[in-house]
Design goal:
binds uracil; Aldehyde Oxidoreductase, domain 3; five-stranded mixed sheet; four-stranded antiparallel sheet; 3 domains; about 450 residues; alpha+beta; Pyrimidine Nucleoside Phosphorylase, Chain A, domain 2; 17 helices; about 45% helix
Length: about 450
C-alpha cells in the first residue's frame, strides 16, 4: 500500500477499504505521512465525500488511536449528551442534573470554546475551584456516588485533534463525513450506551444549511448504529442565541436560576432542555427494544414533551435537579454556595448598556457576530495559553419577533477592559436588524430522529 495510490483513488472518487483509510489516519497520526499528503486526502474527501461505509471506517480508525472508556464496573445504562455547538448553549449544565435524578448514569466529557461558540468546560470553570480534570478512577467514583460528572476527556480518539487542526488550516472543516467522524469517534470512544445529539442549524451554528444539518444527522445516526449504540438526534435552531445570557459565568447563573424554577424567563432554553430530556428519557426507557432496532424513526417532539414534561417539571419543582447540580459541583470540588446565591462570584470589570437606535420588530439576529462579540469581550482564547475572563459576556433582552422602542435597552455587555468593549461593539453594531414588521414563524426544533 502506498500513499500516492490512495490519494489518486480518492481523487477519482473510488471507494477505499478500511485498510487504506486506516493507513492514512494512523500514518498521519504517527507522523509517517506529512501534512501536505494528509491535506490532499482531506480535501479529496471534502470534495468527493465518503460513502457511509467509508465514514464508518474513518471513524473506527480514529477511535483506535486513543483509549476507549471502560465503565464495566458501573451498573446501569449510561447516556451521553452532545451539542454541535452554538451561542448561549447552556443545555448541558441544566439537562445533566435533571437526567441524573432519573437514575441515568451520565459520564459527560465536554470541550472548551471553539470559534464563536462557548464550551461547557469553560462555563463550569467559572465556578470557583471546580475541577474539570478527573482521572478515570474519579470518573468511576462520581458515577457510583452522584450518577454524573462533567469533565475534560482523557485521550480519546487522539488522532481527531491532529486531523481537526489540519482541517482548520486547509479549509476542510465543513465536510459532512469529516465532521461526522470527528464527533462520533469521540462519542463512541466515550462508550455510553445511549447518545443524544443536538445538531444546531442556523446563522450561529457550524451548519448554516438546513439540508446539510439533515445529512449530517443521518450520517451520525448510521455511524452510531454501526457501533451498536442507541442514538437520538434533534435538529434545533441557532438563528438566534439559545439563552439570552451568553458567557461562562452568566450561563451558570442562568442554569441555577432555571433549576430554581425560573425557567419561564428562558423560553427557548426551556423548550430545548425539556425536549432533550424528553428524548433522552424515551431512549432510556425503551433501551432494550431499541438496541435491536435498525430502522430510522422520526417523531414529533411535542409527542415526547406531552409524555415527559410534567415529570421533568416535578424534578425541578421539588428541587431534586438543583440539589443534583449542587452534588455534581461539590463532588468536583467547586464552591457550591453558588447554588444559594448564583450572583455571588459575579464581578464584571466593565458593564455597558447598549440601546436600540430605531424602533420596530427584531427581524434578524446575526448570531455568529454575537458569538464573536462575546469572545472579544473576554471569553475567547487566541492561543491555548490565553487567560479568559469568565465574567465577560452579554445579556440580550429581546428575541426574534419582539418589538423594541427607539432608545430601549437591547443588551448589557460585560467586558474585561475598555479596548475589548470597543472591539466587541464593532461586532454588536449591525448584529440586530429591526424592521417595521415581523412575519417569519419561529421554530425551535426542526426534526427529531432516533434508532
Ligand atoms: N465538532 C467537532 O468535534 N468536530 C468537528 O469537525 C466539528 C464540530
Amino acid at each position: 500500500m502506498n500513499v500516492y495510490d490512495i490519494l489518486h483513488k480518492k481523487r477519482w472518487n473510488k471507494k477505499l477499504s478500511f485498510e487504506e483509510i486506516d493507513f492514512m489516519v494512523k500514518g498521519f497520526y504517527y507522523s509517517k505521512i506529512p501534512d501536505y499528503q494528509m491535506s490532499a486526502f482531506l480535501t479529496s474527501i471534502a470534495i468527493n465525500s465518503l460513502t457511509d461505509e467509508e465514514t464508518f471506517y474513518l471513524t473506527k480508525s480514529i477511535i483506535e488511536t486513543g483509549q476507549i472508556m471502560d465503565y464495566s464496573e458501573i451498573q446501569g445504562i449510561k447516556l451521553d449528551k452532545h451539542s454541535t455547538g452554538g451561542v448561549g448553549d447552556t443545555v448541558s449544565l441544566i439537562a445533566i442534573p435533571i437526567l441524573a435524578t432519573f437514575n441515568i448514569k451520565l459520564p459527560k466529557l465536554s470541550g472548551r470554546a471553539l470559534g464563536h461558540t462557548g464550551g461547557t468546560i469553560d462555563k463550569l470553570e467559572s465556578i470557583p475551584n471546580f475541577n474539570v480534570n478527573l482521572t478515570k478512577e474519579d470518573m468511576i467514583k462520581a458515577l457510583n456516588k452522584v450518577g454524573a460528572f462533567i469533565a475534560l476527556p482523557l485521550d480519546l480518539a487522539s488522532a481527531d485533534k491532529k486531523i481537526y487542526a489540519l482541517r482548520d488550516l486547509t479549509a476542510n472543516v465543513d465536510s459532512i463525513p469529516l465532521i461526522a467522524s470527528s464527533i462520533m469517534s469521540k462519542k463512541i470512544a466515550a462508550n455510553s450506551d445511549i447518545i443524544v445529539l443536538d445538531v444546531k442549524y442556523g446563522n450561529g451554528a457550524f451548519m448554516t444549511n438546513y439540508q446539510d444539518a439533515i445529512n449530517l444527522s443521518k450520517t451520525m445516526l448510521k455511524i452510531g448504529k454501526y457501533f451498536n449504540k442507541v442514538i437520538g438526534i434533534i435538529i434545533s435552531d441557532m438563528n438566534e442565541m439559545l439563552n439570552s445570557y451568553i458567557g461562562n459565568y452568566l450561563e451558570v447563573i442562568s442554569a441555577i436560576s432555571f433549576l430554581k424554577g425560573k425557567y419561564e424567563q428562558f423560553p427557548k432554553l426551556k423548550y430545548i432542555v425539556f425536549s432533550i430530556c424528553s428524548l433522552a428519557l424515551y431512549l432510556f426507557e425503551n433501551y432494550e427494544n431499541l438496541k435491536n432496532n435498525n430502522d430510522l424513526q422520526e417523531i414529533n417532539i411535542n409527542e415526547l414533551l406531552n409524555k415527559y414534561e410534567s415529570k421533568i417539571i416535578d424534578k425541578i419543582n421539588n428541587l431534586e435537579a438543583l440539589n443534583k447540580f449542587k452534588e455534581i459541583i461539590e463532588n468536583q470540588q467547586g464552591k457550591s454556595d453558588i447554588i444559594n446565591n448564583e450572583y455571588k462570584y459575579f464581578y464584571p470589570k466593565i458593564t455597558y448598556d447598549y440601546y436600540s437606535k430605531s424602533q420596530g420588530y427584531i427581524n434578524y439576529i446575526d448570531t455568529y457576530r454575537l458569538g464573536l462579540a462575546a469572545g472579544v469581550l473576554g471569553l475567547a482564547r487566541k492561543t491555548q495559553e490565553d487567560i479568559i475572563d469568565n465574567n465577560s459576556g452579554i445579556i440580550v433582552y429581546k428575541r426574534l419577533g419582539d418589538y423594541v422602542k427607539e432608545g430601549e435597552k437591547l443588551m448589557t455587555l460585560f467586558a474585561k477592559d475598555n479596548k475589548s468593549l470597543e472591539e466587541a461593539l464593532v461586532f454588536i453594531e449591525n448584529s440586530i436588524d429591526i424592521k417595521p414588521n415581523y412575519s417569519n414563524s419561529i421554530k425551535y426544533i426542526y426534526n427529531t430522529f432516533f434508532i
